[in-house]
Design goal:
This protein is α/β, with parallel strands linked by helices. The protein is 48% helix and 11% strand. It has a five-stranded parallel beta sheet. The protein has a four-stranded parallel beta sheet with strand order 2-1-3-4, sandwiched between helices. It comes from Mesorhizobium robiniae.
Length: 496
């Protein structure tokens, strides 16, 4: 069995997955996530998933060993943000051609590319990604990376996650395996302390982790490594000296959290920073884990004081929106941690949840939704586009929260829509993030454009309206009739 096949089988046989533990030995090896057949990796391939997890490490050069299209189609596929280095914004590829493949020049070209990046940019590390083409022709990127690391004196990390091996989620996990095998534990920090933690599966989309980190700073808690959001290579390499960890997206990096607990005794829990209650609970559990690992118990009191202060400020800000949003109906078409954390967050201010997608959710995520909604009829595994359209066009929801792929369904149904996936422009984590989320929902629902677009077109209006419009002889009378029936008040058309 090849090393990649063994790695994939190991990733699928995940002991920390509740669903996987409930299977027999044979079924357990098939894993929690079924790999897709080549060419059918809908929603992203394994290479795409590995890139999502590793590219937010901002001071690393990410080199794609592939024809040009692989990097061109996968670059910048997440709205992660950096507070410092911008090297991750530079796109590197070996740009293999047909001649390189036929003549067997791929490995030589890869070694040359590593040398050029080292000389031009001097990064602390270079991550080299295999792809479908290079894996199929048998390129040994691990040997090339090992030789380059010895030659150039820097870390060169092979990421063996060609697209054809499975889905994007599998690629997430293979990226975690690459960090475990080649990065985490390779550097010993000289400043390890009792209040160091890791945050795993947090991507800093739209810079939202920057709304959470100040809360931890006020408690004296240092984020040793946030993987991968706004991370630095050295921080990730020293992550094994953290005292506790919080898992934000278990469907992506549960294998990383579990193996770090086994190897370095770093306990972890799964939590969320979406919503006021969930943010407060996450802070409590972080502090409690640190105390178990030897931190001063007084941090528990400081945590409660901070929570009381921040919750008071947040609820005061949200009070202005409650009368406007009370009873509004929301349809959530997302997955993973957002499938339950946003449900709880929105219900806190009186918004009704008419449905939430659980396609990418774990068994724990689904159980949380059942506990929150008290009814699993509002959960759907996958809803076809025509079903979403029918639900929205029949006004069963006042707004849909989803990713960019389904925005046009909402727009066609003349229903407000808000982006809550990786392309979003606003951060929604923490106390301030919850206020921002509610503000954006309020702006979307009460935007006057929706009332206007739902009105019938002039040619579809009742005959009485058409007759009165056609009977007017002067331009002024026509404008007055139009104002009467269409409600045009923003512009004085008669003055034109």
């Amino acid at each position: 069995m090849s090393s990649l096949s063994a790695k994939i089988q190991d990733v699928f046989n995940e002991p920390a997955c509740d669903r996987n533990r409930g299977k027999d030995a044979k079924a357990r090896k098939e894993g929690c996530s079924k790999p897709l057949t080549p060419g059918a990796a809908a929603g992203g391939c394994a290479f795409d998933g590995a890139k999502i997890v590793l590219q937010p490490i901002t001071d690393v050069a990410h080199l794609i060993h592939a024809p040009l299209a692989c990097e061109g189609n996968s670059w910048d596929n997440r709205g992660a943000a950096s507070s410092g280095p911008t090297l991750w914004r530079t796109s590197f590829t070996t740009d293999l051609t047909e001649l390189d493949v036929v003549m067997g020049q791929g490995e030589r070209k890869l070694f040359k590319a590593i040398r050029e990046i080292k000389e031009a940019y001097g990064p602390p590390a270079i991550f080299v990604y295999s792809t479908c083409v290079t894996a199929l022709i048998g390129e040994d990127i691990e040997a090339v990376c090992k030789r380059a690391a010895e030659k150039f004196g820097l870390a060169v990390v092979p990421v063996d996650a060609p697209g054809f091996v499975g889905s994007k989620n599998l690629g997430n996990k293979l990226a975690g395996e690459a960090l475990l095998d080649h990065v985490i534990g390779t550097v010993e920090p000289d400043d390890a302390g009792p209040y160091d933690i890791n945050i795993l599966g947090e991507f800093n989309l739209a810079g939202e982790f920057w709304l959470v980190k100040p809360l931890l700073d006020r408690l004296g808690i240092r984020v040793r490594a946030c993987i991968p959001g706004d991370a630095r290579y050295l921080d990730v390499a020293c992550a094994h000296r953290a005292r506790a960890a919080m898992m934000v997206c278990s469907s992506a990096l549960i294998n990383l959290a579990r193996k770090m607990e086994e190897r370095w005794e770093i306990p972890f829990f799964e939590g969320s920073f979406y919503g006021i209650t969930e943010t407060s609970e996450a802070l409590r559990r972080i502090s409690a884990l640190l105390v178990k690992k030897g931190a001063d118990p007084e941090i528990l009191d400081r945590t409660e004081t901070l929570i009381a202060q921040e919750e008071g400020i947040a609820w005061k800000k949200l009070a202005a929106y409650r009368p406007r949003l009370q009873g509004k109906r929301v349809l959530l078409n997302t997955g993973g941690v957002k499938s339950w954390s946003l449900v709880h967050a929105l219900m806190e201010i009186g918004i009704e949840i008419v449905g939430t997608s659980v396609k990418k959710s774990t068994a724990k995520d689904k159980e949380r939704i059942k506990q929150i909604l008290k009814d699993d009829n509002h959960m759907f595994e996958q809803m076809a586009a025509r079903e979403l359209y029918a639900m929205l066009s029949e006004h069963k929801a006042d707004i849909m929260l989803s990713g960019g792929r389904t925005q046009f369904i909402a727009l066609k149904a003349k229903t407000p829509w808000l982006d809550i996936n990786q392309e979003r422009q606003h951060p929604y984590a923490g106390y301030d993030g919850m206020v921002e989320l509610v503000r954006q929902i309020d702006l979307a629902i009460h935007n006057p454009i929706w009332r206007q677009v739902r009105e019938p077109a002039p040619w579809d209006r009742p005959p009485a309206v058409k007759d009165e419009l056609s009977s007017t002889k002067s331009a002024t009378a026509t404008v007055q009739a139009f104002k009467k029936f269409a409600g045009a008040t923003a512009v004085d058309f008669g003055a034109c």
